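Example (one chain per record):
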Amino acid sequence: MAWLNFALLTVVFYSVFDLFVKLSSDKMNSYFNAFIINLVATVVLLFFVIYAYFTGEKLFDVKPGGWLFSILAGLAIGAASIFFVKMFATGTNLSVGVPLVRVGMVVIGSILGIVLLKEGFSPKYILGVLLALAGLFLVVTK
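Predicted structure:
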């Protein structure tokens, strides 16, 4: 159940992240804003890497594909950061933009998991995704 604690912390920090991206989006160039966001995130992560190193964690135990997928994930989060900031810079409301992005991630993540990773699903799962889409429709079209 430890995963749930990490999931809840992720939700909290992503929500705060969303708020601060919205608040900063019209105050500086979108590209530079995304750069600052990711630069500060890199510094925070560096402290965690240093801590892990000094506590004896195996930092450089990399399996095949580890480097490639990490680099691709970095490219994706960099692009996502730019477009997320640009979305808010156009005046999108936090209460509409965040649900659109997050529910969209649920739908696309579900499709990728099922199709590419061959993860299982059930009728109940499909109903949940459809309800999420219905909720998104209601939020976006208010």
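Caption: The chain is about 80% helix and 0% strand.
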